[in-house]
Amino acid sequence: MAHNPSAAAAQETDVAAPTFTVPFDTRLLCIGGIWRAAAGGETLALTNPSDGSDLAHIARGGTADIDAAVAAAQAALDGEWGRLTAAERGRLLGAIGRKVLDNVELLAMLEALDVGKPLKQGRADAVALARYLEFYGGAADKVHGETLPFLNGYTALTLREPHGVTGHIVPWNYPMQIVGRSVGAALAMGNACVLKPAEEACLTVLAFARIAIEAGLPAGALNVVTGLGNEAGAALSAHPGIAHISFTGSVATGRLIQAAVAHNAVPVTLELGGKSPQIVFADADLDAALPHLINAGLQNAGQTCSAASRILVERSVFVQVRDRMAERYRRLSIGPAVADLDMGPLISKRQQQIVEHFVALGRDSGLRIAAQGELPTDLPRGGSFVRPTLFDDVPADHALAQQEIFGPVQVLIAFDGDAEALRIANCTAFGLVAGVWTRDGARQMRMARALKCGQVFINNYGAGGGVELPFGGVRHSGHGREKGFEALYGFSTLKTIAIQHG
Ligand code: NAD
Question: Out of 30, 193, 305, 453, which one is annotated catalytic?
Fold first, then answer.
């Protein structure tokens, strides 16, 4: 990616670390292919969660910027972008994906400084973003309608068409992956996008938009308006020019967005939270299960919608699984994101307080702690670090086993037999992902069918990111599906044509 050509802009860019300068002006948003300040001229500060230092400033976009972005997106649909064939869109997405791969190190560093994510995870996210673009680029000209048997003298057919201008509101925890799965699919189907990243962390989103434009994405096909949720986000979700909203974030905000979107009667995809279980039966291959039980709970310091925050273990192997997990917890390495250890900080002091509150709640209500990770004594004082905590044999209806904590806290729950495992697994308000560890093939299938959630993984968890696998939830985890071909159906609408020709 080219560095900012303006020396003045480069000088004004905030320095994140002595050896690294963000190589573009972070205070600009992108409307119609032009990088410019927010209409109101204001900015918001980004903090490096590893040490609490000022990282950069971003534009505080508002209603006027969203209006301009929606107009620019509509102009793109009416112009060059709208005239591209599906094959041309696909080729372009592939080219953007390859340019993302050229910039993996930059993106990983931005994500480390902005989100607090260890570099290896940031690299994996950047590669996943490229893979989404590759997948959706390849699929762009393979989604089509049908001809339908109908009345004599008629030919009836369906066409898959883009919605129009699509709105994308994404959170801070996996900006690259979520932009890949949502914007990638929307562009593949020929929509023009207005993207509102999170105010806590959005540098990789800004970098991605620059990469896409440098790779040749026509002006206005992707517009990025940074800003606060209740300003830019609310303006986007209520905008009458938006034909579809894709939202990933909290349940509380999801409700607000669904209500706002209802006013315009347009479709919405909600990817919300979770309290996902991994269920370990006594006959499971425990050696294979163990890394998944822990990593799926602690990846990105537990700030993952599909985090396996509940570990259900059949009673006869409970102590063995608990002790092996506890031993691993005690060996976790924790430190600043750029040190690239097992775990970095949480996104913010606020998130740190929320997690500490839950750990204190567990302790105060008499729960036993099976293990905690140790924080090194030389951590930067301003960092938002917490000790990862594993709670021992928690009642399934306890707040720690019911509410999404969004931090490195896992609860162990003992069960006896299939029926109890299922009852506990299904007993929260969420339903995003579940993992089942057993060698019994019939049980695998029975569990998979009876679990109330959007994805079930048997003898694995997460399956390599699963770009190809439809993803989404039921109940409070949301509705609609992203990833895989399902996303392409979601980001398009079907038109039926009946021709009477005698
Ligand atoms: P959040 O809901 O606070 O914010 C998400 C996005 O919504 C941000 O861009 C924010 O600016 C915007 N927003 C906030 N208020 C808004 C409003 N009134 N109108 C429009 N937009 C608004 O969520 P968060 O704290 O940033 O993210 C954490 C949550 O996201 C967790 O619950 C997590 O489980 C969920 N999440 C889900 C998935 C998934 O795929 N299911 C993925 C990642 C995160």
Answer: 305
